[in-house]
């Protein structure tokens, strides 16, 4: 009974909030509903830290949608929601498995008992076929009879005909009902989340630490050979990276305030992405060298020291990229891509730190994936909370590096900042905004929103316009 | 996740068909997004024209098997659900293609 009420309510709430509506405060209300509904079916969700954190992430992203509604806040919202559902299914799993459990429950949750044969399978007998046929007859025969006789009576009796005509069913919106059915299906899928048992159990029991093994002479020889190859490879890579860093220092010290935009652009756009790929490859190489027995053989201190120095040199490479990107921002202003490079650099530094921890504490590759994915998600979720378009616009106007076509393309997220600088009315003409009609900012559509689509920026602009009109 | 061992042949067929349609559709979309070649967009629409009636026929056959008692109600729901799941996925892919090509 409780389950039926939650599913029915889920459908009605879903359709009321989302049918023909843009995203706004509706995402936040639906998240609250989801938390309450899942708390009713699973009381323990209020006690587990992973579930609480993912729920907070979901609510924070939903708030960001209602405040500025950037694309990253929407990405953060969907990631957090799937994570929350996945953690309710199994709160101890790795982040990537929680997403998988979240997707599994959202799409196939209602069939979980069917997959795992939790309920006794129904044995199909010919008698059942008669039952279904009988059911169809029970529904269709009276229906046909009622329709035929209604038509006959309405022809024979004008009062009855008028009565039938007076019944107005236009208030029923079939698409609203369809959306509600979809919402009910989603709720039925997630109202009691269950994990994919086999891989979830495997993941929970898989440790982060490497375990030492007893090696025979042949295995020991293989590991020693690997150590030798690793040692020489890392020495070469260290030397190569030192040379690269010297050239980086030369480039940075020769950079002047009047550096040509094209030179900096090349250095940042091509150089940055190639460097980031090289650092990710470096992490991969280290993870491969330290994948197993090499961690436990005697006299590997030199190799470890060389590895640490390579990690440190890679960190210096990140710093050099940061300096170039910073110079580019100082000279030419902020953009989403330039902020994106800073985020990549942050993630790369974190990746290097986790790689250092992996080598230092003899941890396995799964540890690297677990930690780095969790950190990556956290960074995306936090990144989505901030209205970067507003920050970019404010910064570029203040330092007088205005690229009008670019700032026009950031509407409506930067609308309040443009208004503060007295540029909103001018920029909404969008004389420079290129692309198809779907890329354009339509003020009337953005401002005239239903309560479900509440957006703080739209609300403030509308309020200002009312004040000016009065 | 595992499928029950004693699924009827038609239930298995519908699941396999739905998965094959999904995989092929995703492959075509992926190739289109990577190469940006319109040949893959046309191929995608052609695939849709073939896949829709085939999937509909399988859905119909599953329904008939339910009525004739050859399929349990759970198997029917699962088969039809998996087949119908491709509808929103196809719409989503269509949205991606139209957005990407700025149609």
UniProtKB/TrEMBL annotation, chain A:
**Carries keyword Transmembrane helix?**
yes
Keywords, sorted A to Z: Membrane, Transmembrane, Transmembrane helix
Any one Pfam family here would be: DUF4153
Q: Which domain of life is it from?
A: Bacteria
Q: Give a yes or no for keyword Membrane in this entry.
A: yes
Recorded hits in InterPro entries, A to Z, give: DUF4153
* Membrane spanning residue stretches: 23-40, 52-75, 95-115, 135-154, 166-188, 229-252, 272-290, 311-329, 341-361, 373-391
Q: What is this protein called?
A: Uncharacterized protein DUF4173
TrEMBL record, chain B:
Which residue windows are transmembrane per the record? 12-34, 40-64, 76-96
Question: What keywords would UniProt list here?
Answer: Membrane, Transmembrane, Transmembrane helix
From which domain of life does this come? Answer: Bacteria
Q: What is this protein called?
A: Uncharacterized protein
Q: List the lineage, top down.
A: Bacteria, Pseudomonadati, Bacteroidota, Flavobacteriia, Flavobacteriales
């Amino acid at each position: 009974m409780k389950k039926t009420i939650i599913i029915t309510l889920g459908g009605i709430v879903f359709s009321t909030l989302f049918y023909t509506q843009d995203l706004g405060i509706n995402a936040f209300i639906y998240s609250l509903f989801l938390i309450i509904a899942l708390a009713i079916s699973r009381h323990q969700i209020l006690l587990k830290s992973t579930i609480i954190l993912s729920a907070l992430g979901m609510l924070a992203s939903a708030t960001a949608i209602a405040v500025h509604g950037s694309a990253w806040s929407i990405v953060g919202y969907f990631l957090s929601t799937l994570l929350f559902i996945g953690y309710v299914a199994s709160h101890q799993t790795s982040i990537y498995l929680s997403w998988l459990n979240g997707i599994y429950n959202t799409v196939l949750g209602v069939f979980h008992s069917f997959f795992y044969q939790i309920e006794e399978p129904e044995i199909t007998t010919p008698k059942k076929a008669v039952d279904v046929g009988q059911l169809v007859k029970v529904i269709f025969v009276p229906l046909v009879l009622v329709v035929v006789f209604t038509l006959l009576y309405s022809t024979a009796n004008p009062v009855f005909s008028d009565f039938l005509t007076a019944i107005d069913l236009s208030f029923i919106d079939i698409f609203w009902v369809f959306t509600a059915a979809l919402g009910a299906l989603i709720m039925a899928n997630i109202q009691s989340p269950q994990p994919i048992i086999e891989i979830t159990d495997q993941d929970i029991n898989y440790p982060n630490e490497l375990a030492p093994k007893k090696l025979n002479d042949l295995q020991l020889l293989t590991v020693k050979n690997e150590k030798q190859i690793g040692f020489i490879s890392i020495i070469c890579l260290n030397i190569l990276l030192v040379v690269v860093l010297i050239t980086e220092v030369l480039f940075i010290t020769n950079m002047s305030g009047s550096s040509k935009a094209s030179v900096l652009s090349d250095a940042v756009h091509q150089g940055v992405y190639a460097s980031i790929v090289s650092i990710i490859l470096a992490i991969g190489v280290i993870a491969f060298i330290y994948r197993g027995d090499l961690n436990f053989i005697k006299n590997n201190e030199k190799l470890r020291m060389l590895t640490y120095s390579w990690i440190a040199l890679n960190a210096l490479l990140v710093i050099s990229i940061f300096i170039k990107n910073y110079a580019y921002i100082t000279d030419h202003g902020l953009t989403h891509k330039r902020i994106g490079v800073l985020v990549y650099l942050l993630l790369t530094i974190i990746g290097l730190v986790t790689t250092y921890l992996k080598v230092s504490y003899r941890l396995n590759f799964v540890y690297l994936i677990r930690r780095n994915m969790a950190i990556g998600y956290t960074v995306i979720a936090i990144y989505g909370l901030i209205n970067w378009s507003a920050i970019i616009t404010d910064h570029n106007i203040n330092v007088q590096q205005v690229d009008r076509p670019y700032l026009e393309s950031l509407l409506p997220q930067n609308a309040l900042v443009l208004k503060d600088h007295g540029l909103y009315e001018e920029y909404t003409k969008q004389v420079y905004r290129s692309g198809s009609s779907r890329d354009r900012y339509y003020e009337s559509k953005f401002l005239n929103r239903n309560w479900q689509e509440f957006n703080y920026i739209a609300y403030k602009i509308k309020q200002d316009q009312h004040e000016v009109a009065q | 996740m595992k499928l029950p061992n004693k699924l009827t042949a038609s239930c298995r067929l519908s699941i396999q068909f739905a998965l094959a349609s999904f995989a092929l559709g995703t492959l075509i979309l992926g190739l289109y997004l990577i190469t940006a070649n319109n040949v893959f967009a046309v191929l995608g629409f052609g695939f849709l024209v073939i896949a829709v009636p085939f999937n509909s026929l399988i859905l119909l056959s599953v329904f008939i098997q339910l009525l004739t008692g050859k399929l349990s109600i759970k198997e029917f729901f699962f088969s039809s659900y998996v087949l119908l799941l491709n509808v929103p996925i196809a719409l989503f892919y269509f949205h991606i293609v139209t957005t990407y090509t700025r149609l």
